């Protein structure tokens, strides 16, 4: 089945079995292997990408559902010469350890910061009507879908705080 997805700013037409997940389409068909496959059933967040600016688990979504969508993967976020502030902050704060979870963590953090910017509350928000704060509790709650087996969680929180300060 033909489907056209704009991936990292470039329109890509794929001819895929309708059962192909977005994750497999990215990795196996487009050879964009920055997005990682961990659990393959929505529990680890390693496969997180941005679809039209919103973070999703690409293992839980079919490629054909994204005809016409804009997908951003880690390959579309910063370059080796010019890192995104979050990528730099992950290095500075030692949040990048084995690195397997890192692409998903970074895509998720971008989505999470946009959610805070848009005023969307989380389970950790004391007052759901007030503007959410960028504190450790909010970051931990909002990043709870991304598992890091190296347990770099304290550093990941610090990296997100640092990058958010620099991006503001
Ligand atoms: S690979 Fe998608 S959530 Fe684990
Ligand atoms: S840095 Fe290794 S799993 Fe997170």
TrEMBL record:
<dbReference type="Pfam" id="PF00111">
    <property type="entry name" value="Fer2"/>
</dbReference>
<dbReference type="Pfam" id="PF01799">
    <property type="entry name" value="Fer2_2"/>
</dbReference>
<dbReference type="GO" id="GO:0016903">
    <property type="term" value="F:oxidoreductase activity, acting on the aldehyde or oxo group of donors"/>
</dbReference>
<keyword id="KW-0479">Metal-binding</keyword>
<dbReference type="GO" id="GO:0046872">
    <property type="term" value="F:metal ion binding"/>
</dbReference>
<feature type="domain" description="2Fe-2S ferredoxin-type">
    <location>
        <begin position="1"/>
        <end position="77"/>
    </location>
</feature>
<dbReference type="InterPro" id="IPR036884">
    <property type="entry name" value="2Fe-2S-bd_dom_sf"/>
</dbReference>
<keyword id="KW-0408">Iron</keyword>
<protein>
    <submittedName>
        <fullName>(2Fe-2S)-binding protein</fullName>
    </submittedName>
</protein>
<dbReference type="GO" id="GO:0051537">
    <property type="term" value="F:2 iron, 2 sulfur cluster binding"/>
</dbReference>
<dbReference type="InterPro" id="IPR001041">
    <property type="entry name" value="2Fe-2S_ferredoxin-type"/>
</dbReference>
<keyword id="KW-0560">Oxidoreductase</keyword>
<dbReference type="InterPro" id="IPR006058">
    <property type="entry name" value="2Fe2S_fd_BS"/>
</dbReference>
<keyword id="KW-0411">Iron-sulfur</keyword>
<dbReference type="InterPro" id="IPR012675">
    <property type="entry name" value="Beta-grasp_dom_sf"/>
</dbReference>
<dbReference type="InterPro" id="IPR052914">
    <property type="entry name" value="Aldehyde_Oxdr_Iron-Sulfur"/>
</dbReference>
<dbReference type="InterPro" id="IPR002888">
    <property type="entry name" value="2Fe-2S-bd"/>
</dbReference>
<keyword id="KW-0001">2Fe-2S</keyword>
<dbReference type="InterPro" id="IPR036010">
    <property type="entry name" value="2Fe-2S_ferredoxin-like_sf"/>
</dbReference>
């Amino acid at each position: 089945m033909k489907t056209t997805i704009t991936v990292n700013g470039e329109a890509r037409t794929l001819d895929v079995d309708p059962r192909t997940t977005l994750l497999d389409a990215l990795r196996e068909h487009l050879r964009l292997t920055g997005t990682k496959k961990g659990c393959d059933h929505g529990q680890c967040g390693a496969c997180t990408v941005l679809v039209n600016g919103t973070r999703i688990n690409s293992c839980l979504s079919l490629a054909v559902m994204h005809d016409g969508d804009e997908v951003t993967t880690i390959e579309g976020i910063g370059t080796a010469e010019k890192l995104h502030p979050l990528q730099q902050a992950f290095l500075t704060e030692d949040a990048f350890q084995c690195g397997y979870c890192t692409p998903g963590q970074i895509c998720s953090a971008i989505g999470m910061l946009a959610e805070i910017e848009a005023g969307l509350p989380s389970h950790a928000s004391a007052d759901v009507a007030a503007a959410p704060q960028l504190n450790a509790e909010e970051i931990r709650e909002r990043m709870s879908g991304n598992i890091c087996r190296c347990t770099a969680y304290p550093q990941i929180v610090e990296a997100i705080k640092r990058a958010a300060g620099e991006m503001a």
